[in-house]
Amino acid sequence: MRGEDGVREFLISSFDRVKTRYLHCGYAKELYVSSGLFEEWQTIITEVPPLLFLSYSLLKQHGCPNFIGKLELKNYVEKHMKGQIGHSILPSIIDNRLDDVISRNKLDDLHIHLNGTTEIELLWRTALERPHAFSNAIKPAHDNTLVKELYGLEELDFTQNELLVRLRVAKMLRSVLLDCAVNDKEVNQQTLKDINQRAEFDRLYSPFNKGEEDRFAQIDNDCSIDVFTNHMGSKLITPLVKESLLLIKLFSHLEKSKSENFAQLFYYYLLIKCQLMRLVVQQTQFYGFDQFQKITVNEIRSDVERDYEARFSQVANDNAQSIERLEGRFAPNKKLVANKERLISILQGYSRYKAGFSDKDNTSGKNIVELLKADKNYKGRLQLSLIAHFIKQQDKRAAKLSSMKEDEVGLHNLGWCCRHYQLRNDVEKTRRALMALHQRYTDLPEYLKGFDAAANELDAGADVFAPVFRRLRNDGYHNFTFHAGEDYVHLLSGIRTVDEALRFLDLNHGNRIGHGTAVGIDPELWRDRIGKRVVMKQGERLDDLVFAYHILKKADCSGKVLNLLESGIRELTNKIYCVAPALEQKAAPTQLFSFEYITPEDLHEAWKLRYLDPILAFDLKSKCSHTIRSEIIDEILKIKELRAVKPRAFKLFERYHGIHDVNFIRKYNELVEVDIDTCPVEQVFTKDILRILQKSILQKISKKQMAIESLPTSNLRISFYESYSEHHIFNWLGVGDEEGMEVPVVLGSDDPGIFSTNLRNEYAHVLIELDKRLPPMEAIAKLEQIVKNGKIWRFENQF
């Protein structure tokens, strides 16, 4: 901005530059982004809501409607906004090939979380229009450490309370700005004074305080966009259309009035809006699941996402009719009543969505039996399947041991059970609650199609969920997927976790892996981005080396490679498992436990036992044989057989869980620093060796006739990638730099609201990169195969 220019000139020139560079008008007069700039555009809309740019472009294309003339305003919406702004506002590229593939086949979103879907505009409107509900919704996250970190990253000393103050200010600014724009008047100095007083009052007391709101009611309620749009039906005048009309009017007044006061208030209003966006959308300068998790736990979406109808309307992509099947993930509860309420809420929202689409009566008042039976043969737009996903959680008791000294650990033996004891019990209770719901409502499988486990995979692995997945399979369910290889400390760990998901969960034909980044990413790219040192648990390092040793030995790698791995394995084994830590002062440093020598094969056999339920294996709950269910008795008998056949492995499995001495857990969790450049063992893992490990897992997935759910934008924001061209999906499609990595791939949008994307745009990003590698028709053929994969690997009936 030049020194002589004011805020007004800065705003107009900025929006004009973005419009000119990125947004163009297509044949049907819809706005689109050119393919060459689409990735750049995707980065911009992580920080600035795209509706701002589209509204400014609409103003430039079609002018500003007369708000006073009801018929003129309605005609403007029908002619210029319908089909372009509805329940979603994410411009795409224009490509006849892509449009043809979508119109003929329709898309299936096979990896999308229902929470985390809502776009910024609906969040913004809800925060301003329902201030008390919004405030109450986010309060539970006030003391959350991750949430405090998120606010601190946004601005020094920024807090949840300050956010609420600024949202109150934005609500007042919104009313004042619209009043000035509609009535063509200047900003009143007394109004500015009142706004400042209100902001200071909120900082001293409680934002959105009901007892004091009347003092400032005249500021909040003077002018609202709803006054001008009440004559139009909800199908035409969606919340996003209202928001766009407001912005069009404000931009128009900004240009015509030449008022610097108005410009400054408008600028402040937009700054607050963009700041809220940065708290709910993954930013490009951050990566890693930890940063993503800060957004998922801040509760900013919780109030608006109580209602599911808007999310189904958003995902359906308005008039595009691009989505045929939505496999929406939701987190079940360990209580039957809570699960029933959650399902009712989801199905009522879906029912209202269908009613709005087909002009049927609203069915939101139906009970769960009626909702489950309603429209079984519904073949309209957006067919819904539900995927229940268990939540991975940290083993806090095990983590606490890591900070203790050896002599402090002894007392904890009395209360110790096994790894993730609480989580194992919780997911089992959740399974039973879901099965009880199924027994009560036999039509439940019409919607509940599969199971998953999600959240931070560094907190819990596939072994924790293996017993529950096994019992679900015995209950008759067979559609399973699992988040694995998405985030990892070391690439070896990520590859291993994918293999553990396949092995421990017995994933097979028709099942899927979520993300799987670790078995696709270029090892050299990972090394370049991770830095020179990796800090990880020494027990996980040992698991990684044992896993790699087993695969590389079968692959006939050189003796030097295997010898180096054996050396690393032996060193870590002695530190963790061989010498009982409590006996170190009495025993010789080389003393081994009951058997003479622990081999890599022993460790591998013990690792393979982790699919067992340790609660049953080590009799950690009192049992009465006459009350134990038959499938549990079968598990116990199987465990007894394995204990007899593999005593050495079972002993190591016992120590892995710290059954008789929790010092083994402490030793396992001790941190070790791995120098990527100088560690002798690390030198084994060249790019070629890591590719062997990746390919071995990919071949297993293909042989099992499984697919991987690939989520390009999610991976770009969370993983180590800086551009879509680096994404591993192109190796999986057989058009990358590495041969022999082809595997069936399906696409998903993951958390569309958090990543500012939708499924069509995920396909668009993939197509843009395919066009750089293949002739045009070969590129679209590859893309169409992904669409067909979605039909093949989507979860159909369970039974």
Automatic annotation (TrEMBL):
<dbReference type="GO" id="GO:0046872">
    <property type="term" value="F:metal ion binding"/>
</dbReference>
<dbReference type="GO" id="GO:0046103">
    <property type="term" value="P:inosine biosynthetic process"/>
</dbReference>
<dbReference type="Pfam" id="PF00962">
    <property type="entry name" value="A_deaminase"/>
</dbReference>
<dbReference type="InterPro" id="IPR032466">
    <property type="entry name" value="Metal_Hydrolase"/>
</dbReference>
<keyword id="KW-0378">Hydrolase</keyword>
<comment type="similarity">
    <text>Belongs to the metallo-dependent hydrolases superfamily. Adenosine and AMP deaminases family.</text>
</comment>
<dbReference type="GO" id="GO:0006154">
    <property type="term" value="P:adenosine catabolic process"/>
</dbReference>
<feature type="domain" description="Adenosine deaminase">
    <location>
        <begin position="405"/>
        <end position="526"/>
    </location>
</feature>
<dbReference type="GO" id="GO:0004000">
    <property type="term" value="F:adenosine deaminase activity"/>
</dbReference>
<dbReference type="GO" id="GO:0043103">
    <property type="term" value="P:hypoxanthine salvage"/>
</dbReference>
<protein>
    <recommendedName>
        <fullName>adenosine deaminase</fullName>
        <ecNumber>3.5.4.4</ecNumber>
    </recommendedName>
</protein>
<dbReference type="InterPro" id="IPR001365">
    <property type="entry name" value="A_deaminase_dom"/>
</dbReference>
<feature type="domain" description="Adenosine deaminase">
    <location>
        <begin position="695"/>
        <end position="766"/>
    </location>
</feature>
<dbReference type="GO" id="GO:0005829">
    <property type="term" value="C:cytosol"/>
</dbReference>
<keyword id="KW-0862">Zinc</keyword>
<dbReference type="InterPro" id="IPR006330">
    <property type="entry name" value="Ado/ade_deaminase"/>
</dbReference>
<keyword id="KW-0479">Metal-binding</keyword>
